Structure to design on (674 residues):
């Protein structure tokens, strides 16, 4: 054998040996070799890599803290989106969830679930190519995350190469999981940091997030980060045989050397989900890491595919959250905030209080009826509840501790931001400022929405900078953002040459966007992300959307008279059309949706009824639209096809009466594939 081949073989063998002993030490807590023996293997590898740099692979165990600090974070698109989870707060919610599933998976009597503690950590995506780690990313907006490979590689329990002695490996796989810090490690790390005068964190989750958001990998390497794998993203399976269930996936991960939560279990029905939840709730305090609930996933992967997803959460999983945590504090002040569309919300400012590891300093109060119901006043002592990521809420006032001099909160007479007139529309419990974008607060809130993650996603342009830009008169509408130059930005506090260039770069990068994001970013009332996607799919390009009529809008499934009214109101205002055109002239280019025109469904009018076994209804609709069909909500003489699933409604009868062609699920799916 050639000398160089022998060297390569030894290098690969050293990887395997080191990875194996490192796994035993870091993941199993059961060292299989003396420290000095391990050091000898490691040194041998370092020496070979120094002598033969061509055998220094990016996934070598020597490369855990290999890279120099980065200049900035790079965005990476996930191969499959990273979804979030719907929440359940009680047994009823769980039973509803189970029922929804039973309704869709016709013929099943009970559902088997994989039960897993819901770690309160940071979601990460690990991409392995031919078994070697290629990239690690944050969740980001679910579609695009940030490259944190340099930091994730420092986590000793994450294998740089999957162990695959027994099984084939997929060509490419996205492994999803949670990076976290254990409670004790967090405490000692915070104490150490405080002693050294360094930054401390409010809770383990923030500490984990702070460690991963570092450009210099030596910081993450110094933090006690851990990882549990819990899901699968994209997979290009090659010869690898896919697991059949979520629990098999977890077993497989374990066999590959990835840490998985030992408390995960499989149950055979919803009743046992309750028992599992009880069990984990009782163990919660004693667990070494923080959890905020339990995740239940339909175990059978085929069933998961059938169930599909709604918006950004799968139908096949749910997070049952632990009850909220409660704390007591003092209301320093009650002020009024103006929202994006003028709603006035009372906000209570507190003496900061630590509730379940999170410092809470304010809570918004729904509206004035809620102030009256609680009878909360400035100076009151209140009980505040915090549940997961939900905004904290005042639950009650300790009237006994109230000062005699305290007075009731009065609603403002005029807008706290622009002093404009306030109205209380009929049937609404909310006061509104009617000044629209001439009100500075609404201007700022609209801009914040415009640049937010799920809208144009302009990185580095947060609330503080927007406030500054508006205050300095540099920006007064969306289009002004694209007219900013470096000198403008350098006028703002805290900006240097590099950070100004970065901000301009991200503003520029946001110009290439999707039609759905663009429509959503405009902040039209009642047009959330799902509606924006619907509008985009139906109008295909911005020009068509700008001339939408009431008839067009009402024909779109899921768009009712209220949303339609707000959309038409928006489109009828000259200044809004000018704003959109200005944005387009400044280079913002929402990508047209390409709809096929040579498909049997192209330009056909189609109505869907009933539920489907092999495709989620929302997905069926999206796919029909993509091949050029117009999916409408009611059957009329103009309807070309009715796609009828199980338990069809009255639409089937109407279509039959009108002699409209009826397609069963299978036929429709077959035609879609053509
Ligand atoms: S599954 C499609 N399993 O909870 C399902 N998530 O909003 C995606 N999380 O960001 C998540 N423990 O990072 C799943 N055992 C577990 C989890 C878990 C924690 C996090 C996850 C996600 C969030 C859900």
């Amino acid at each position: 054998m050639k000398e160089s081949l022998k060297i390569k073989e030894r290098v690969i063998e050293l990887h395997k040996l080191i990875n194996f002993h490192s796994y035993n030490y870091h993941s199993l807590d059961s060292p299989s070799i003396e420290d000095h023996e391990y050091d000898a293997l490691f040194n041998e590898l370092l020496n070979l890599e120094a002598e033969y740099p061509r055998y220094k692979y990016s996934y070598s165990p020597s490369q855990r803290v290999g890279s120099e600090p980065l200049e900035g974070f790079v965005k990476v698109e996930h191969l499959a989106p990273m979804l979030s989870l719907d929440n359940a707060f009680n047994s009823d919610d769980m039973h509803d969830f189970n029922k929804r599933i039973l309704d869709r998976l016709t013929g099943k009597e009970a559902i088997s679930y994989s039960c897993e503690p819901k770690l309160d950590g940071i979601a990460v995506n690990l991409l392995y190519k031919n078994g070697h780690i290629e990239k690690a990313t944050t969740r980001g907006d679910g579609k695009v995350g940030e490259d944190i490979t340099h930091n994730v590689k420092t986590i000793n329990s994450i294998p740089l190469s999957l162990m695959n002695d027994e099984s084939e490996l997929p060509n490419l796989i996205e492994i999803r999981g949670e990076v976290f810090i254990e409670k004790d490690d967090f405490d000692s790390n915070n104490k150490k940091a405080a002693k050294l005068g360094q930054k401390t964190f409010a809770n383990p989750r923030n500490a984990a997030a702070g460690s991963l958001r570092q450009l210099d990998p030596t910081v993450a390497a110094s933090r006690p980060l851990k990882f549990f794998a819990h899901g699968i993203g994209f997979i290009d399976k090659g010869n690898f045989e896919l697991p059949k269930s979520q629990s098999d996936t977890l077993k497989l991960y374990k066999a590959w050397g990835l840490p998985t939560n030992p408390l995960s279990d499989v149950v055979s029905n919803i009743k046992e989900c309750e028992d599992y939840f009880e069990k984990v709730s009782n163990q919660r305090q004693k667990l070494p890491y923080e959890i905020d609930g339990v995740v239940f996933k339909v175990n059978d992967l085929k069933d998961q595919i059938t169930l599909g997803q709604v918006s950004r959460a799968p139908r096949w999983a749910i997070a049952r959250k632990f009850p909220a945590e409660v704390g007591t504090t003092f209301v320093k002040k009650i002020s009024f905030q103006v929202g994006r569309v003028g709603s006035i919300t009372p906000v209570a400012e507190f003496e900061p209080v630590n509730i379940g590891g999170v410092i809470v300093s304010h809570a918004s109060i729904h509206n004035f009826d809620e102030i009256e119901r609680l009878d909360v006043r400035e100076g009151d002592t209140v009980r505040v509840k915090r549940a997961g990521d939900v905004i904290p809420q005042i639950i009650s006032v300790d009237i006994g501790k109230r000062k005699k001099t305290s007075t009731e909160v009065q609603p403002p007479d005029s807008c706290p931001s622009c002093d404009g007139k306030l109205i209380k529309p009929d049937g609404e419990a909310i006061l509104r400022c009617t000044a629209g974008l001439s009100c500075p607060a609404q201007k700022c809130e609209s801009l914040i929405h415009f640049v937010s993650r799920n809208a144009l996603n302009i990185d580095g342009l947060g609330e503080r900078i927007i406030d500054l830009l508006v205050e300095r008169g540099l920006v007064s509408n969306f289009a002004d953002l694209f007219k900013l130059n470096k000198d403008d930005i350098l006028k703002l506090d805290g900006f240097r040459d590099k950070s100004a260039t970065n901000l301009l770069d991200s503003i520029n990068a946001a110009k290439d966007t999707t039609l759905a994001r663009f429509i959503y970013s405009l902040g039209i009332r009642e047009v959330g992300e799902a509606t924006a996607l619907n509008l985009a799919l139906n109008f295909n390009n911005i020009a068509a959307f700008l001339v939408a009529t009431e008839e067009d809008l009402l024909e779109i499934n899921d768009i009712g008279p209220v949303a339609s009214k707000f959309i038409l109101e928006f489109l009828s205002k000259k200044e809004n059309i000018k704003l959109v055109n200005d944005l387009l002239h400044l280079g913002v280019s929402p990508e047209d949706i390409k709809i096929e025109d040579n498909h049997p469904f192209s330009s056909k009018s189609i109505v869907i009824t009933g539920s489907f076994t092999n495709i989620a209804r929302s997905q069926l609709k999206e796919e029909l639209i993509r091949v050029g069909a117009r999916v409408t909500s009611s059957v009329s003489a103009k309807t070309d096809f009715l796609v009828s699933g199980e338990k069809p409604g009255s639409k089937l009868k109407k279509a039959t009466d009108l002699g409209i062609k009826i397609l069963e699920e299978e036929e429709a799916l077959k035609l879609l594939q053509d």
User: Anything to note?
Assistant: The first helix runs from residue 3 to 26. The radius of gyration is 28 Å. The chain has six domains: 2-63, 86-321, 326-401, 435-510, 514-591, 605-673. Residues 83-85, 116, 118-119, 123, 139, 178, 230-231, 295, 314, 317, 319 surround 2-(butylsulfanyl)adenosine (CB under 6 Å).
